[in-house]
């Protein structure tokens, strides 16, 4: 007799889809709107693994703006 699952944990990002390249392009576009350049190296060193809210807030803060 099969034991029913109580929960299933599924990791989508980084296993089936790698969204980091897409995120990088979007954040580079946002940085350009704020008037500066965000390189791939900067993104990786400063923002990789952070939430969208944290990244947008940090980019806005660099220009003295609220997120």
Structure description:
The chain is mainly alpha-helical and 67 residues long. The chain has a domain at 20-62. The protein contains three helices and no strands. It has helices spanning 20-33, 40-46, 52-62. The longest helix has 14 residues, at 20-33. It is elongated, with a radius of gyration of 17 Å.
Tell me which oligomeric state these chains represent: single chain
Low-confidence stretches: none
Which strand-content bin applies to the residues?
under 5%
Structural class call reads: mainly alpha
Mean pLDDT: 88
**Main sheet record:** none
**Globular, elongated, flat, extended or rod-shaped: what is the shape?**
elongated
Number of helices: 3
The percent range for helix content is 40-55%
> Radius of gyration in whole Å, from Cα?
17 Å
Number of strands: 0
Spell out the helices and strands N to C: HHH
N/C terminus separation: 53 Å
Would you kindly provide a brief summary of this structure?
With 67 residues, this protein is mostly helical. It has helices spanning 20-33, 40-46, 52-62.
Index terms:
67 residues, mainly alpha
Which secondary structure elements does this structure contain, and how are they paired or packed?
Elements: H1 20-33, H2 40-46, H3 52-62
């Amino acid at each position: 007799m099969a034991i029913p699952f109580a929960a299933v944990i599924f990791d989508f990002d980084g296993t089936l889809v790698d969204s980091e390249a897409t995120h990088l392009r979007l954040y580079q576009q946002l940085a350009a709107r704020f008037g500066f350049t965000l390189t791939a190296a900067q993104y990786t060193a400063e923002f990789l693994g952070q939430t969208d809210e944290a990244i947008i807030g940090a980019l806005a803060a660099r220009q003295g703006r609220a997120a």
